[in-house]
Amino acid sequence: MLLFSMLASAQEPWQSTEYLQQAFTEIALHNEYTPGEQPVRKWMQPVKVWLEHHTDQQEQHALLTKYHFQHLAKITGHSISFARSRQEANFIVVFSHLQLWRNDIALVSGNLLIKPPDDAACMFGLGLDAKNAITKAWVVIPVDFAQEHRQLLSCIVEETTQAMGLPSDSDKVFPSIFNDHTPESLLTGLDALLLKMLYQPAIKPGMRAAQVKPVLANILQKWQADGTVLDAEKNVRQSELYEMMGF
Fold first, then answer.
1. Which structural domain, as residue segments, surrounds residue 217?
2. Model-level pTM greater than 0.90?
3. Could you tell me if 229 and 223 are in contact, meaning their C-beta atoms sit under 8 angstroms apart?
4. Would you say residue 69 lies in a domain?
5. pLDDT tens digit string along 93-104?
6. Positions of E strands within 46-204
7. Residue 174's domain is classified under what CATH number?
8. How far apart are CA 199 and CA 90, in angstroms?
């Protein structure tokens, strides 16, 4: 009992079961631009990525994106690969210019009326089926604007991660790429746990908060016992992208 108390006291606030439950509700079951609770949204089919470049430094952008998608696949256990053609892809990432990005958003989304928020450095969108499974996604990054604001890496990481089914931002969730006040540009231990929670087989597209809560309670109880929660920050740093950025 004493040993358990010592381990429990060593945890960060975000590692508590209650915090993780609330963080999942904030990020997975809400949407930044849509009020009210939303259902679970996640990929059920394999993700096939296509990169479209309208800028220089294509190799660097492709490598950053490749490493991050590899990291997402490792965390979630979901199949993510690069498509052989644009037609085969269901997830398109466009590296654009500020002068072009509104047009690129309209083209990739198929919605000529869609406009990015005035304060946005990048943008993503999702397509859902009737059961709220994600069937397609897109990300558009105006590279020159993102680089000017030192947000290129965070745009790649945050927007593609949100397009996996964690679409909201919240100041209540920290430390996390979904919180604008978190200094890190790479996934945190908390982010990795949110992704793992979302891609547990028992979490289905279309589930509501009341349905999700008891399922996650069982999962988190196991993760607290087996060290998954305690080791989350250490484990999330074991990726090519962390190594590439010098961590």
1. 13-244
2. yes
3. yes
4. yes
5. 999 999 999 999
6. 47-53, 80-82, 91-96, 123-128, 133-142
7. 3.40.390.10
8. 18
